[in-house]
Amino acid sequence: MSEQPHLLIVEDDPDLAEMLSAFFHVQGYDTSTAAWGEEAIRLSQNAPPDLVILDIRLPDIDGYEVCRRLRAQRRTQDVPVIFLTEKRDRVDKLAGLELGVVDYITKPFDIQELRLRVRNTLRRAAQASQINPVTHLPEGDAVEERMVALLNAGGAWSVVQVAVEGLATFRARYGFLAADDVLRAVALMINNTLREQKREEDFAGHLDAHSFVILTDPAHAGSLAERLTQRLKQSIGFFYPQKDRDPEQAAPPAPALQLYVGRLDGSAGPFADRAALRDALQARLALAAE
Questions:
Q1: Do 6-128 and 141-289 fold alike per CATH?
Q2: Where are the domains of the chain?
Q3: What is the Cα–Cα distance from 17 to 35, expressed in whole angstroms?
Q4: Pick the CATH number of 141-289 from 1.10.1760.20, 3.60.150.10, 3.30.70.260, 3.30.70.270
Q5: How confident is the model at residue 213 (pLDDT cuts 50, 70, 90)?
Q6: Residue 16: closest CA among 66, 60, 59, 54
Q7: Residue 164, Cα to own-chain centre: how many angstroms?
Q8: The pTM is what?
Q9: 131-183 residue pLDDT tens
Q10: What architecture is domain 6-128?
Q11: Can you give 35-54 as a three-state secondary structure string?
C-alpha cells in the first residue's frame, strides 16, 4: 500500500460523493469517485484501489454485481469493500458478506465512524498483504524484517533459498492456476521439511514471487537443503498435466521448470545490509544452478 492509500468512492449522489472525497482527502487519502458501476469496475482494473466504498443502489448495475466482478478479477479480488447503503435488511447484509464485503454501513451515517472503519480496514489489509495469498507464507516487509534481525543479531546462522525458474513460461502455457499450484506445492514441501526438523525457531517466507528463503542455523542447514533438493527433484514431473508427462524421458517437457536450492552461511560475511545479503544469496543460487 502506498503512503497515501487510494480510496475509490462509488456513489451516484454527486453531493455525497464530493463530500466523502473532500473529507478523506483532508484525512490524507488519495481519492477517486465513480457514479456508475461499470465506471467503478473500469477504474479498478486500470488502477486497483486500496479500498472501495460502494453504494448498493447505482444507476446501471447494483453494488452486488460490482463487488462480484471485482472478486472475479485477479487484480482486484483482494481489494476490501465497504458497502454504504440505505438497505437495512438482514438478507441484504448477508448477500454482501457472501461476496466478501468487509463492512456494511447504512445511511444516514456518522462520518467519523466511517473514517475509523476505513482506517481499521486498511490496517487489516496491510497486515494481510504480508502473507502470500497462494502459499500463505510471509512475504514483503515481514521477511525483510526477519533478515535485518538476522544481520543485527550476529552469531551463527544460515539461509537456504529455493528458487523456481521458468515459471513465467510455464504459466503462459498452462495458465495461472497451474503456476499457482507449483508455488503451493513447493511451499508445502518446505513446510513439511521444516516440520520434520522439529525446530520452531526456523522461519520460511518469500524472498520474491518465485523464490523462498528459510532462516535456520548451520547445524541444520545442510540436511534441510539436501532433503528439499531430493523432494523437489522427485516431484517436478508431477507439476505437468498427465498428457505432457513422458515416463521414458528423464527431463521434464518444455517449457521446463527448474528448481534450485542454495545455501548461504553467516560466516561468509560480513554483510553490510540486507541488499548485500540478497546479492550474496543470488550468487550462491547461481552456483547451485550451474
A1: no
A2: 6-128, 141-289
A3: 8
A4: 3.30.70.270
A5: very high
A6: 54
A7: 17
A8: 0.58
A9: 888 898 988 888 888 888 888 877 788 899 999 988 888 888 888 888 899 99
A10: 3-Layer(aba) Sandwich (3.40)
A11: CCHHHHHHHHHHCCCCEEEE
In this prediction, residue 233 has a pLDDT band, given cuts at 50, 70 and 90, of confident
Supply the pLDDT for residue 209.
Answer: 85
What whole-number distance in Å separates Cα of residue 222 and Cα of residue 220?
A: 6
Instruction: Read off the pLDDT band of 96 (50, 70, 90).
Output: low
